[in-house]
Design goal:
Radius of gyration: 36 Å
Shape: elongated
Number of strands: 15
Helix content: 40-55%
Largest sheet: 6 strands, mixed
Oligomer: single chain
Distance between the termini: 99 Å
Number of helices: 31
Structural class: alpha/beta
Length: about 650
């Protein structure tokens, strides 16, 4: 049925058995006069109702010229709609998109002829059920088309966002129709090996492959984690690994039109119905918050308030979906426990490890055709979240013609993400040969790094400048983990109980990041409890000692004052390492390492040197060059002299 027959049918059914004198019939006849030749092919002159009515009862064979009606028929076929719903969809599209049908529908509404009932009857519904079928039937449930009440109390057709986008784009084939009804196909740009640092990837690929083969219902995978960690890209890779096509549900189109929560939920429903029998498709619902409703972030965390929507509806949706769905969210706190229990798997994607981040940098640099400078690696060492901005920074650097590939842009983005400050980079130029210790360092270090040191704990003691912090940074790099540094100022609070809470949160944060946790100035946190003046001070030490026993990841504590530590502290650490001032051989090696020349004999007369002393003098040279090696020795001597207590020389 084309527009002509739809209009003729509307006029005939609306008029019914009314006489020519009825106001509705007069209005129809008046509207028909300008369209007389189109309504009645071959007719000339003024239309008369009796003759027009007789003509309207005779169908006219005309070619289907309206693409919108052809698309409505395609959608009905793909969804296997019952005949009544299929015809109703065509009628509603015609009355929304075809000019004469739309004008006639508005006229009928103004004349008080109920449009939903009229179209329901025309589509073939029983008269008593026609209004319900049109208003609350299959088309409304699938989010294709419905009616709404306008301000004058009349009913108007509302073509939903998904169907409207389809009609606007008019794709040429069924594949294009699917992409617009469900969401665009998502192509993977990375192979499974790019996510080798995520141990569960292989399982998830097998899970999807098995679900597709068995046509299993209720398979859902939730991927959560901070923005920019690659959740969407992982979803694409998982689908590709399972040999499936991935459709992104209800995403904004190229014109920037944004779907509402209901639009996305309806697109998901459509996708499940359209693709249920294919067995080769996975759906991606990015930003799961849209499923739950209009949520707003609460203060102090990722939990959300003002959730909308029925929990029962969401639960049933997850239990019955015939097509596997991958969900992503930045804030798992927004996801109700009842929803989590219905997930087949929940994967947290945190910031990548240093090795994974450097691999990402290499790949991004290759794809964006830039040469990254050393600033990128330094930034990744200090701020793991830099991995989330590599591509945009590289593109910005390329457009600006930066030789280093955009590290300036990366630093600006990281500064914004961290609230305006950049973390201090870890010490560079680490050299195990420049450490004096009470036991051989290199074999111990190699053993810890080689075995992954999943639950190792290390207590570092010794005078300032002996390299305790540098040691912790290098250990984290060797273990391919970020370093989370906590000082007394980060944890101690004037409020009773708050220090214990912040200590617990430090360990929780380390677990979330899978980081090496470094307690700097540990004597302020693990002091001898017999010296405590208040009971709550003892509680702080107890809290930290308890977590040291239970924490499953590497922990390092560093202190300049070993004697102030609580005696119970020592047994909490698997290894205890004391770093001391440099002996003669290592002092000469440090001179060559920092200053690039052979140490003079006068260096042997300076006792108590540490790597920190050499680092300070090296920084002085940037602004105050030295005349010769003798002056360098003199500056080192001054650094030792200003220390509160002269260190005892360690001989080897």
């Amino acid at each position: 049925m084309d527009e002509l027959n739809i209009v003729r049918g509307l006029m005939l059914r609306a008029a019914g058995t009314l006489p020519a004198t009825a106001p509705l019939v007069k209005a129809l006849l008046e509207w028909a006069q300008p369209h007389g030749e189109w309504l009645v092919p071959g007719h000339a002159g003024k239309l008369k109702w009796k003759a027009l009515r007789a003509t309207l009862e005779e169908p006219v064979v005309t070619p289907l010229r309206a693409p919108a009606l052809g698309l409505a028929r395609t959608v009905a076929h793909l969804l296997a709609l019952p005949p009544v719903d299929a015809e109703l969809l065509r009628l509603m599209v015609a009355c929304d998109r075809l000019p004469r049908a739309a004008a006639l529908a508005k006229l009928l509404d103004r004349q008080g002829r109920g449009l939903p009932h009229l179209l329901g009857e025309m589509a073939g519904a029983e008269g008593s059920d026609a209004d319900r079928v049109a208003r609350r039937g299959t088309l409304a449930r699938l989010g294709l088309a419905s009616f709404y009440i306008n301000r004058d109390g009349g009913a108007e057709i509302d073509i939903a966002w998904t169907m409207k986008r389809l009609l606007d784009r008019a794709p040429a084939d069924d594949a294009g129709v699917l992409d617009l009804l469900v969401g665009p196909r998502q192509a993977a740009t990375l192979g499974v090996e790019a996510f080798g640092h995520i141990g569960e990837v292989g399982f998830l690929v097998r899970l999807l492959r098995g679900a597709l083969a068995a046509k299993a219902a209720g398979v859902n995978i939730l991927i959560h984690g901070p923005p920019g960690t690659g959740k969407t890209e992982l979803a694409r890779t998982l689908a590709q690994g399972a040999g499936a096509v991935l459709h992104g549900i209800g995403e904004a189109d190229d014109d920037g039109e944004e779907p509402s929560r209901w639009d996305r939920v309806m697109a998901l429903t459509l996708g499940q119905k359209l693709l249920a029998k294919r067995g080769d498709t996975v759906l991606l619902f990015d930003e799961m918050e849209d499923l739950i409703g209009n949520a707003s972030p609460s203060a102090g965390g990722d939990w959300f308030r003002a959730r909308e929507g029925s929990k029962v509806f969401v639960n049933r949706l997850l239990e019955a979906n015939p097509v596997p769905v991958i969900w992503t969210t930045n804030a798992i706190g927004n996801v109700d426990a009842a929803i989590l229990r219905r997930m087949s798997f929940v994967l947290r994607m945190d910031l990548p490890s240093r090795a994974a981040a450097l691999a990402m940098l290499e790949r991004v640099a290759r794809e964006e055709a830039v040469a990254p400078g050393p600033g990128f690696a330094t930034l990744l060492d200090a701020a793991p979240e830099a991995a989330t901005v590599l591509r945009v920074a590289a593109r910005a650097g390329k457009l600006a013609g930066e030789a280093d590939g955009g590290s300036v842009a990366a630093e600006a983005l990281v500064r914004a993400l961290r609230g305006g400050t950049l973390p201090h980079p870890g010490p560079g130029g680490f050299d195990l040969d420049l450490f004096e210790s009470d036991r051989p360092i290199e074999p111990l270090f190699a053993a810890m790094a080689g075995e992954g040191a999943s639950d190792v704990s290390l207590l570092l003691t010794g005078p300032p400048g002996t390299g305790k912090t540098a040691f912790a940074h290098h250990l984290a790099r060797a273990l391919d983990r970020p370093l989370l540094v906590k000082r007394a100022s980060d944890l101690l609070s004037k409020w009773v109980g708050q220090t214990e809470a912040q200590i617990a949160e430090a360990f929780a944060e380390a677990r979330r990041q899978e980081a090496v946790l470094l307690f700097d100035e540990a004597d302020s946190l693990l002091f001898d409890r017999t010296t405590a003046r208040n009971s709550w001070e003892v509680g702080q030490v107890n809290e930290l000692l308890t977590w040291l026993d239970r924490h499953p990841l590497p922990v390092v504590a560093a202190t300049n004052h070993e004697a102030k530590l609580d005696p119970a502290t020592l047994r909490r650490f698997v290894f205890k390492l004391r770093l001391g001032p440099l002996g003669a051989a290592r002092a000469k090696a440090a001179f060559a390492r920092f200053f690039g020349e052979t140490a003079p004999a006068a260096l042997g007369e300076v006792d108590g040197l540490t790597p920190g002393d050499f680092a300070v003098v090296a920084r002085q040279l940037r602004h105050w060059p030295a005349a010769d090696a003798g002056e360098l020795v003199e500056r080192l001597r001054r650094e030792v002299a200003v220390k509160p207590a002269r260190a005892v020389r360690v001989g080897f």
